[in-house]
UniProtKB/TrEMBL annotation:
Residues 302-321 have a biased composition (Pro residues). This is Export associated protein. Residues 65-160 form the TerD domain. Pfam families: TerD. It comes from Streptomyces venezuelae. Belongs to the CAPAB/TerDEXZ family. Signal peptide: none annotated. Residues 220-236, 248-280 have a biased composition (Gly residues). It comes from the Bacteria.
Length: 698
């Protein structure tokens, strides 16, 4: 039986030959640090890394990936070795910290594969290196201890804290990271990254801070930092976007050294989300292998049709935007890729502006320091003249950067104005006229590629909003946070209004998913144990689109979870056995959505375990989770539920900057997509779903 450890807990090891297993939420480097009785490493040779993988009794992996397995022979390690620290390190240019990706899990197994002890790393934030587990010798026997000690300053800080001198620790960390094999750079893919699932997140989204605020990464990959620093030239801007919908303009906020967020070939999709390609050295972003993000049910037997061409622009003017100018086999796919192209362009344009401003500020500080330190400037007023000249140069640089940003924003705004009206219902705002003529696709229709959850914007341009799209079928569940902790907008809102807004948001998402599913064939189940959400759930109940009335009380919670758990178990067994025809005839094999309101009311330990199981295993077989809950209210369960929260993409019913992009890690403000106040669009949509179910052959 596996011992699931918590931080600081130890467990005896009954085997001398063990296997270390790592399952991370993002590609990581797995290292081992050998220590003496006091835990001090014996110099550089004490670290097993890709450039020196072998040590007596163990050999660490040499690649960066999200899953590792390597063997350790505790009888073969040196007699002077009393501790083996298992380290996880984010590669250079990777996510902004372990808190921005789904929680990693590390375990110790025997040679037969049975896990002896495991530990899930929770409670991390901006740490990029962590001591996950420690195998240690005590009175001739070996034990394992869950450590979970992270370091925001990376591997060098970890090694220095372990006892290496600071210069040696920094050099050893640089050597270890430089030895990581680099993949061959590939061109950018012609389609956009997968959203949602850290993101990312995704985007997911997976809590931590990007620029002090973002706690989930959008996209299948994780947040990629900007370049290593600006040079001295002006910003160059976006430039024209090619047909595939991605920016390939020449530079970032400052040219000079050319290592800003657009200096490299660019990423492609996780969080997270969960893939985007890993960033590679010195701030440049290296491209990943080409990945096909095509819709799994769309035909690929013929080449994609040519994208529509924009009308020619006048000399000296930027290209005129046109909806659907990205590559794809359908207009839906082109628009999806184009939206992601706009999202990336805005992220990089703002990163360029911020980089230029930071450079201007740094140069101003340097020039002022030089002026004040020169005794000649203290006499005759020359110091004031030097200060005024430095301020003028700073103003000139920032004005130039802002003019480039404004030009890029104008170009993107024009594109949004063209693209937004052309979006299909699955991607469109609720006030888009497309909903007035919308009809539920027939049973033989195609499911959409993605679903709109809301809008995203940055503080430099709050009026420019980019649709936030998440790929279908959902690879991660959604969590709509109805708590007030961690959000200024939520803190300023009445608790009852906040909870009603969160559930209204969940109902709107469910209605949208039903409306775009062929035949309206999505089974929607609701758990509302205390009945507190009856008013907000009324549109779903009244229209008759629910699979059953909302489950109330502990008995209703247990019954609903048992039914969905049974479906997941049976479908998984049928898939593994390759015998889907053996499924019971009464089993609904269509996609299912479970909405859980007011968790953990009405949940006992068994129900919590089943909910975690559905969150982990359900998406693979078409059972998706949408939770409306306050994480603080579930804190009584302790760390048991941390993996659950981290596996979901957190959304907020009020504007909140908790999401990060997978390119430069900006903190984006998310605003939910809701029907306009007083609109009847939700009732019309649900009535259309009910009609489609009554007349499936129409």
């Amino acid at each position: 039986m596996t011992a699931e450890l918590v931080r600081g807990q130890n467990h005896p090891l009954s085997r001398s030959r063990v296997e270390i297993r790592v399952s991370a939420g993002t590609p990581v480097l797995a290292l081992a640090l050998l220590g003496d009785e006091e835990g001090r490493p014996a110099g550089p040779a004490a670290l097993a890394h890709p450039g020196a993988r072998q040590q007596p009794g163990l050999e660490v992996p040499g690649e960066v990936t999200d899953r590792h397995r390597f063997a350790v022979d505790l009888d073969a390690v040196g007699a002077e070795v009393h501790r083996l620290g298992m380290l996880l390190v984010l590669p250079s240019g990777g996510p902004i910290g372990f808190g921005s990706v789904p929680a990693s899990h590390i375990s110790v197994a025997d040679p037969a594969g049975e896990e002896l002890a495991g530990f899930t790393l929770t409670g991390l934030s901006t740490e990029t290196a962590v001591v996950a587990l420690e195998l240690y010798r005590r009175q001739g026997a070996w034990k394992v201890r869950a450590v979970g000690q992270g370091y925001a300053d990376g591997l060098g800080a970890l090694l220095a804290d372990a006892g290496l001198a600071a210069p040696a620790a920094g050099e050893l960390a640089a050597t270890a990271l430089a030895a990581v094999p680099r993949p061959t750079t590939a061109p950018r893919p012609t389609t956009a990254p997968v959203s949602g699932t850290p993101y990312t997140g995704t985007p997911g989204p997976a809590p931590s801070a990007a620029s002090g605020a973002a706690d989930a990464t959008l996209g299948q990959g994780q947040g990629l930092p900007a370049g290593s620093g600006p040079g001295t030239g002006p910003a160059t801007g976006l430039g024209p976007r090619p047909a595939h919908g991605r920016h390939t303009g020449p530079g970032t906020g400052s040219s000079g050294s050319g290592t800003g967020p657009d200096a490299g070939p660019g990423p492609a999709a996780g969080a997270g989300g969960e893939g985007l390609g890993r960033p590679e050295g010195n701030g440049a972003v290296a491209g990943p292998p080409t990945i096909d993000y095509a819709h799994p049910r769309r035909s690929r037997t013929v080449p994609p049709p040519a994208a529509p061409q924009a009308p020619p622009a006048a000399p000296g003017e930027p290209p005129r935007p046109v909806a659907g100018d990205a590559t794809g086999w359908s207009m839906d796919e082109r628009l999806y890729n184009q939206v992601w192209g706009m999202f990336e362009d805005l992220a990089r344009a703002v990163a360029a502006y911020r980089s230029a401003v930071e450079f201007a500020d740094a140069r101003l500080d340097r020039e002022l320091d030089q002026a004040l330190s020169d005794p000649r400037h203290r006499l005759g007023g020359s110091g004031n003249a030097a200060r005024d000249a430095a301020l003028a140069r700073r103003e000139e640089l920032t004005d130039q950067a802002r003019s480039v940003l404004d030009r890029d924003l104008a170009q993107l705004t024009a594109e949004v104005e063209v693209v937004e009206p052309a979006l299909p219902a699955a991607y469109a705002r609720w006030d888009n006229p497309v909903w007035h003529a919308h009809r539920v696709p027939g049973p033989d229709g195609d499911a959409p590629m993605a679903l709109r959850l809301g809008e995203l914007h940055l503080p430099e341009c709050p009026g420019l909003q980019i649709p936030m799209l998440v790929r279908l079928p959902l690879e991660r569940g959604l969590w709509i946070d109805n708590g007030r902790t961690g959000s200024e907008a939520a803190m300023a809102m009445d608790t009852d209004r906040l909870r009603r807004a969160a559930l209204d948001m969940a109902v709107a998402h469910a209605a949208r998913m039903l409306a775009v599913q062929p035949g309206g064939g999505l089974g929607v189940h609701v758990i509302d144990a205390a009945g507190a959400g009856s008013a907000a759930l009324e549109p779903l109940v009244r229209s008759g689109v629910l699979a059953a009335p909302p489950a109330a009380g502990p008995a209703g919670v247990a019954r609903t979870l048992e039914e969905l758990t049974r479906r997941v178990d049976l479908v998984q067994m049928a898939v593994r056995a390759g015998a889907p025809e053996d499924l019971p005839p009464d089993l609904d094999t269509g996609d299912q959505l479970l909405i859980v309101h007011d968790f953990p009311h009405g949940f006992d330990d068994r129900a919590v375990t089943r909910l975690r199981y559905l969150a982990d295993e359900g998406p693979r077989v078409g059972v998706h989770l949408l939770m409306v809950a306050d994480r603080d209210e579930a804190s009584a369960y302790g760390p048991l539920l941390d993996p659950l929260w981290r596996s979901l993409m957190r959304l907020s019913p009020v504007p909140d900057n908790h999401l990060a992009d997978p390119w430069v890690g900006h903190a984006w403000t998310f605003e939910p997509s809701l029907p306009p106040p007083g609109s009847a669009v939700l009732d019309r949509v649900l009535a259309g779903v009910a009609e489609a179910r009554r007349s499936p052959g129409r």
